[in-house]
Amino acid sequence: MSRGYRQREFSKTLRCGFFVTGQTTVELAIAIPVLLLLVLVGTDFGRVFYTTVGVKNAARAGAQYGSQTTITAGDFTGMIAAAKTDGSNFANLTATASQCTCATSSTVTACPTSYCTNSPQATFIEVDTQYLFQTLMTYPGIPTSITLTGKAIMQVQQ
């Protein structure tokens, strides 16, 4: 074998083998922070959707409890408890419940006319939920806390 052939083989090893690691290290040093940022953004994005679904489901659970009978329609404490039980993953979840009727009544609030078109004597339950969502880190142009809301309106079973 000629000396030039061996030298060319050795220089290939230096370019493609383990001897040339500076470029790979620089590429890795640039790629890791970008990938970690993408993972954090994706995690926060998933968390906000998971929390939104949970807050809306909690409102629906409270409304389902209240819409069972006319007796449970007046149990605002029970509706709030049902909403908070369903949203037990969210420690500071707040819930409010209200009732309205299409019939003329002096003790229950009147419903908007849009509710009463199909059922002029119906009673409706509304449960509203709120939760203050906190992001994992601060992002430019995006607030670190967002209030997520849920609302469920159901007709009471007569």
Secondary-structure blueprint:
Blueprint: H1 3-16, H2 22-66, H3 70-73, H4 76-86, E1 94-101, E2 109-110, E3 123-134, E4 145-155
Helix pairs in contact: 2-4
Tell me about this structure.
The chain is an alpha+beta fold and 158 residues long. It has one domain. It has helices spanning 3-16, 22-66, 70-73, 76-86; strands spanning 94-101, 109-110, 123-134, 145-155. The chain has a 4-stranded mixed beta sheet. The longest helix has 45 residues, at 22-66. The radius of gyration is 30 Å and the shape is rod-shaped.
Descriptive key words:
single chain; alpha+beta; 4-stranded mixed beta sheet
Structure summary:
The protein has helices at residues 3-16, 22-66, 70-73, 76-86, and strands at 94-101, 109-110, 123-134, 145-155. With 158 residues, the chain is an alpha+beta fold.
Strand runs, count: 4
Mean pLDDT: 87
Regions with little confidence, pLDDT below 50 for 5+ residues: none
Helix content: 40-55%
Largest sheet report: 4 strands, mixed
SSE class:
alpha+beta
Shape: rod-shaped
Number of spatially distinct domains: 1
Q: What is the distance, rounded to the nearest whole angstrom, between the alpha carbons of the first and last residues?
A: 99 Å
From the alpha carbons, calculate the radius of gyration and give it in angstroms.
Answer: 30 Å
Question: Which percent band covers the strand fraction?
Answer: 15-25%
Strand order of the largest sheet: 2-1-3-4
Order of helices and strands: HHHHEEEE
How many helical elements?
Answer: 4
